[in-house]
Amino acid sequence: MSVPISWYLLLAAALFAIGTIGALTRRNGISIFLSIELMLNAANLTLVAYARQMDQRTGQLIVFFVMAVAAAEAAVGLALFIAVFRQRHTIDVNRMNLMRW
Amino acid sequence: METLIFALFAALALVSAIVVVTHKSPIYSTLSLVLALFSTAVLYVLLGAPFLGALQILVYAGALVVLFLFVLMLLNVQKEETAHAGRGPQLWTAIVGAVVFAGMMALVFWRSGSPAVTPLTPESVSLKTLAAELFTRYLLPFEIVGLLLLVAVIGATVAARKPDALGRIEEHEYVSGDEPRTDPLKSGPDPHRPSVAEPAYKEAS
Amino acid sequence: MNPDFVAPIVKYAVMFAVFINVAPIMNWVERRACAYIQDRPGPNRVGPLGLFQPVADALKFMFKEDVTPSAADKPLYLMAPALALFPAFTTFVLIPFGPTIQVDGRTVPLVVADVDTGVLLFLALSSLSVYSLVMAGYASNNKFSLLGSIRASAQLISYELALTIAVLAVILPVGSFNLLDVVAYQQTHLWNFIPQFIGFLVFLIASFAETNRLPFDLPEAETELIAGFHTEYGSMRFALFFQAEYTNMAALSALGVTLYFGGWSLPGIEYPHNWLGAALGLATLIAKIALCMATYVWIRWTFPRFRYDQLMRLGWKVLLPLAIFNLVLVAAMTLAGWL
Question: Are B152 and B171 in a shared domain?
């Protein structure tokens, strides 16, 4: 018995929801990043599931590009974290409040 | 058999995702993310994309998360007192929003059901057809993504550089665990700084 | 029993039996060879020529007291040595070890996992070996271990790039990521290390860095970091790291031999497609891996260690451009029809 594709989509939605909770509530900047990676992963899973359902390879190729973009974004984001850490000596996002009123 | 593998790795993915989001120590979150990525890679293979599964482990779990770990250890990020921003409205709004989203998706998929999928053939999962499509129809995005990665590498290198003496505060490079160099008796004269009697930066708090 | 399940299990048992013996044999070989290079006898008390030294070592590892640092991060500390074995014992399922044999009227390819993305999967699984180093270094709550594991993670991901691009250059004329096709290609053409000598050199140097062997063994440098990331590990846990390192070496040698030296095949000789052919193929592969491991030992005890900045400079500024140049060269040769 084959697994219905909707189960994969449901799993991806659940992963996305968990990632959203993490991205919105964590205080540590790196943990927010990890949650964002989780969300990207969930989106990738959705794309691959739909590629399977529609029997086209477009979804898989989009995932290929999403992975590359996620890698680029993570690299730049971490570099920015290091730069911020040099100035503020913390990566607690609540402490990065230089522009708040 | 396929159901068993799906159930196992879906459960693993969910559990490790929850650990990523809720564990106090960022190192444990990162290692848990590796587990989540690994389970998702297995699910990709189940969905007829073995190349993507291998690529996910190679790129995401094998290089990207190592980068995360490297930065975590470099910056000596400690365990947080509580993983979340407190029991305030922020936490509950996030949870309610996420649950509503997941509920909506569940409703959509429940209502629409799922049509029968064509069984996988060796030709449909073959790497050759994927590569043919990538290099003919999607050649432009491929090249642009290559350019994007180049720009990201240059940007990351520039952003993480040590501050130079061009009008910026000449900063003592803070390595985790260091005492700020304020006492000239504790550490010898620094040849790069005019005087060690005064700290080059002001403590933020 | 379903014959579809029996065949992979038997094949895995064969490969496992080969690769589990790598660590004890290499223990003896390393110590005798380094003694020979350094003009001293080496272990020669336990059994003739010191051949039972690995047995003595194994007994020592089993009976020695297991000391755990009190401030260590217990779950990670205990998981790291076990995790070290994971890439070592999963990567060799992709190495073909003989011709396709005919058993009971079925054609069985002699590789545990016949997947279209063989090489990619090998590289992916071997890139997971960095996690055990990182976990060990972090969980030990020891400055030197942490330094060792930071260096290890930077070193491993840097040299992985050059390794992957060198491997890519091998795949280009073959046209398939499947290692069976790579070996079949080398049976009809020259062994890959002749036309792609630069790529082979890059692969060799990068594989030293990937397995933390001298001259790239800064993560576990004895004279600088006590023992690097496995400082705080004693007895059986250290034995697991030790075993994982040698098995990793053997697996990466197996990949190198399959990609560049024809794998289980010898040029011009057609192995029979039965049990005899399988045994001959396995023996050829083991002989080539043994030669490769002997080279590892030889180079280890001949060269001094790289400094960290020299190491990173070599990985990014020398090996990566060389690997890309090799890829372009091989692409041009393939287009011209020479390969």
Answer: no
Annotated domain spans of chain C: 3-336
Q: Return d(Cα C240, Cα C230) in angstroms, integer.
A: 11
ipTM score of the complex? 0.91
The reply to whether B96 and B146 lie within a common domain is: no
Chain A contact for B157 (CB, 8 A cutoff): yes
CB contact under 8 A, B63 and C160: yes
Q: Residue C324 in contact with residue C166, Cβ under 8 Å? A: no
The answer for B 75-134 residues in CB contact with A (under 8 A) is: 75, 77, 80, 83-85, 90-91, 93-95, 97-99, 101-102, 105-106, 109-110, 112-115, 117-119, 124, 129-130, 133-134
Residue C159 CA to residue C177 CA, distance in Å, equals: 20
**B63: containing domain:** 1-81
Q: Which of B27, B58, B69 sits opposite C120 (nearest CB)?
A: B58
Contact C124 B127 (CB under 8 A): no
Q: How many domains does chain B have?
A: 4
pLDDT of C66-101, one tens digit each? 888 888 888 888 888 889 998 989 998 999 998 888
Residues B75 and B131 in one domain: no
Which residue bears the tokens 């003989």? C98
Distance of alpha carbon C152 from alpha carbon C245, whole angstroms: 13
Separation CA C71–CA C43 (nearest Å): 37
Q: Is the entire prediction scored with pTM above 0.95?
A: no
Cα–Cα distance for residue pair B83/B68, rounded to 1 Å: 18
* Residue A46 burial (CB count, 10 A): 20
Q: Compute the half-sphere exposure of residue B174: CA atoms within 13 Å on the CB side of its CA.
A: 21
**Cβ atoms of A40 and B136 closer than 8 Å:** no
For domain A5-94, which architecture applies?
Answer: Orthogonal Bundle (1.10)
Question: Is C124 in contact with B55 (Cβ distance < 8 A)?
Answer: yes
Query: What end-to-end distance do the CA atoms of chain A give, in Å?
Result: 59
Kind plus residue range of the DSSP H or E element containing B90? helix B89-112
Distance, CA of A51 to CA of B124 (rounded, Å):
11
pLDDT in tens, C202-257: 999 999 998 888 788 877 765 565 666 777 777 888 888 889 999 999 999 999 99
**Tokens 């005064």 belong to residue:** B198
Q: Partners for A (CB, 8 Å, 3+ pairs)? A: B
